[in-house]
Amino acid sequence: MKEWYIARGDKKYGPYSLDEMIVLRQQRKIFEYDLVWKQGLRQWNVLIQTIEFSAQAIAERSLRAETCEVFNRRRWPRVHVDIPVLVHNEMNLWKAKTLNISQGGALIELNTPFLNIGDEIHLHFQKNVLNSEINSNSEKFSCMGKITGKRFSQERIHVNSLIQYNLCFEVMDECALPKISQWVETIIKEKDKSNTLKGA
Known about the structure:
Layout: E1 4-8, E2 11-16, H1 18-26, E3 35-37, E4 45-46, H2 55-62, E5 79-88, E6 93-101, E7 105-110, E8 120-125, E9 141-152, E10 163-172, H3 176-199
Antiparallel strand pairs: 1-2, 1-3, 3-4, 5-6, 5-8, 6-7, 7-10, 8-9, 9-10
């Protein structure tokens, strides 16, 4: 059923079906901070705050046989992490945090709203994902990537807080890919081990 509308400024677009909205989201044609509405909603809502587009609702929908072809599958597994990283765009330098990572990209969180989709930024990793010790110089590495998504946290709608940016890696140091692969493999193994112990 085509019932979803998108508002940008004084222009409105639609109606779209839920699956069409998901495809638009995947194609980076609509974003977390866009306003959406359908019949039955009391007001226009920010997409990220709309129940139908919550991470849980999208994950559940992706598993349904009749809609699974709508969803893009990740080329590489992505794991949740908490890694400090320095970010710069040739003009400014920020301290940031990596929230998840894969061999193909990352989700980072930092306190600036001025980066945009399509911008290229550099990431300099300095700490080990598995502990808080500073790595040796030989283990530090950098990546350059392009921003593919921008997510305003719910807190930012009310106060000046952090913003999350999706990043697709385009250039990596020689040691970056093996190091990230090692991180991902270690975390997945630890998660599988933990799940096995819980089931015992």
